[in-house]
């Protein structure tokens, strides 16, 4: 029996009195793509950040590649080197070229020499289709290109797992496709990926599993056809109907505002 690449057990996370995660159990196999969907405030991004220990869980355990990263004695820097993270914002250094943005973390964190880091940078820029932008600076790139550079930067570190936190949410609609195409390619290459997203077409086409979260718990976990195509729970059906019908969502938000604002 194979060991899960990611295993989350009874994960809780609170910020003061606000309990954001309420006992999450989740496993991912190596090479699996899991898309996490759900309304704002459901705990999706917090779950992702706990998997990388960017947020310290209040209770519970997280294992990556068989190592418990929530063990107080673990070498968390060594574990994080195996986990690539791509955020909503690109977080590129504006004063560095694209190549320099990719080589600096390799040299600082992995100790690679300049030539080796440059070769790895070039390889990963090619993977995301941006070889011609190697000497460009972030300000000269579109948002989609900057996000693809951010993906290349994460890949250059040689991760075993990639975490994506709404990677297209800050992009204009016409720029989303190129970023999703890169992620589709990574999935075909067998990269283990956990993706927090509202892109239902991507989830249906690429994900092996879809996890729907609401209120800090996992409501449904199954194949895309099960969770998106034929959801069992009313909470899932309601979320998908609002997501696929923006006009309905606007009406509900206006009504909520009139009676005292949306529930958190």
UniProtKB/TrEMBL annotation:
Per its UniProt record, what Gene3D superfamilies does this chain match? P-loop containing nucleotide triphosphate hydrolases
**Topology relative to the membrane:** Peripheral membrane protein
Name of the top EC class for this enzyme: translocase
Q: Which PROSITE patterns match?
A: ABC_TRANSPORTER_1 (PS00211), ABC_TRANSPORTER_2 (PS50893)
What is one term from the GO cellular component aspect held by the record?
A: plasma membrane
What SMART domains does this protein's entry cite? AAA
**EC numbers for this chain:** 7.4.2.1
Q: What keywords are annotated for this sequence in UniProt?
A: Amino-acid transport, ATP-binding, Cell membrane, Membrane, Nucleotide-binding, Transport
Record-linked Pfam families:
ABC_tran (PF00005)
Q: Where is the ABC transporter domain?
A: 6-240
Whether Membrane counts among this entry's keywords is: yes
- What compartments host this protein? Cell membrane
Q: Kindly indicate whether the keyword ATP-binding belongs to this entry.
A: yes
The Gene Ontology terms for molecular function here are: ATP binding; ATP hydrolysis activity; ATPase-coupled polar amino acid-transporter activity
Which reactions fall under this protein's catalytic activity?
a polar amino acid(out) + ATP + H2O = a polar amino acid(in) + ADP + phosphate + H(+)
Which InterPro entries does its entry note? Answer: AAA+_ATPase, ABC_ATPase_HisP-typ, ABC_transporter-like_ATP-bd, ABC_transporter-like_CS, MetN_ABC_transporter-like, P-loop_NTPase
Q: What's this protein's family per the entry?
A: Belongs to the ABC transporter superfamily.
Q: What is this protein called?
A: ABC-type polar-amino-acid transporter
């Amino acid at each position: 029996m194979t060991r899960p690449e990611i295993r989350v057990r009874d994960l809780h996370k609170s910020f003061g009195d606000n309990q954001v995660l309420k006992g999450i159990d989740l496993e991912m196999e190596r090479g699996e793509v899991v898309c996490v969907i759900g309304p704002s405030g459901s705990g999706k991004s917090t779950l992702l950040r706990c998997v990388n220990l960017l947020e310290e869980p209040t209770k519970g355990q997280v294992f990556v590649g068989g190592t418990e990263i929530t063990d107080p004695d673990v070498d968390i820097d060594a574990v994080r080197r195996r986990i690539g993270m791509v955020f909503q914002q690109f977080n590129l250094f504006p004063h560095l070229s694209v190549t320099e943005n990719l080589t600096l973390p390799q040299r600082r964190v992995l100790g690679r020499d300049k030539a080796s880091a440059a070769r790895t940078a070039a390889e990963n820029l090619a993977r995301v289709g941006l070889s011609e932008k190697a000497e460009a600076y972030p300000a000269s790139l579109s948002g989609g290109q900057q996000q693809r550079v951010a993906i290349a930067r994460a890949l250059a570190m040689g991760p075993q797992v990639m975490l994506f936190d709404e990677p297209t949410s800050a992009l204009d609609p016409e720029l989303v496709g190129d970023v999703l195409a890169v992620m589709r390619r990574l999935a075909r290459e067998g990269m283990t990926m956990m993706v927090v997203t509202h892109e239902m077409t991507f989830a249906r086409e690429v994900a092996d599993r879809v996890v729907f979260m609401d209120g800090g718990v996992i409501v449904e976990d199954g194949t895309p056809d099960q969770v998106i195509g034929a959801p069992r729970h009313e909470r899932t059906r309601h979320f998908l109907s609002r997501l696929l019908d923006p006009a309905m969502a606007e009406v509900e938000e206006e009504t909520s505002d009139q009676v005292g604002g949306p529930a958190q």
